[in-house]
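ARCHIVE ENTRY
Sequence with per-residue tokens
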Amino acid sequence: MQTRQLGPFTVSSQGLGCMNLSHAYGTPPSTEEAGRLLNLALDLGYTHLDTAALYGFGANETLLENSIRHRRDEYVLASKCGMFKNAAGVREIDGRPEILKQTCEDSLRRLQTDVIDLYYLHRWDKRIPIEESVGALAELIAEGKVKTIGLSEVSAVTLRKAHSVHPITAVQSEYSLWPRNPEIAVLDACRELDIAFVAFSPLARAYLTGTLTDPADLEAKDLRRNMPRFQGDLYT
């Protein structure tokens, strides 16, 4: 498999997003099936695996620990903080430094690893200056719990502010032949600042595969049902 540079890491040109192994696109596979897929991905040369505290509300990180922790030296591990289940059991964006640090501790415990290679701020909590959230992630680097930091779904302006506090290794945003928002300014900012751009959902959440012919066939809990572009005339 071809490789790309992701900050200090050399990784496979295609990474494996692990979200749908725990939730999002209908009923996830069994833990046994998911474990087999993860090990097969490593066998095939995937060396960039992406998870998050949000995915399955921690279950996805636990899945990686149970399935491939014994192969930890074979892949670059990316996870995310800043969006998780709150005390009421509801998804919440929270970028307070103390919350980000606690989320990291919880992720390290679930993953059973000493360090996360690339740690993203999953979403910017606009109640908190981006500089404060990134400052907390920089402290995690100083403590040896995180190697590099990234941002997910931010504007070029926010990226520049964050990068002024601590070098940002990667920006992760949805990007394909359908949603192309990063072309407005983010890609140019990444080039200028020498920041890697990680495109998620490059097949437009299955739209470009030709296998999704009618969104009405999606399971009730499939998150695409709540996306306007998968509804009515916007889809066709």
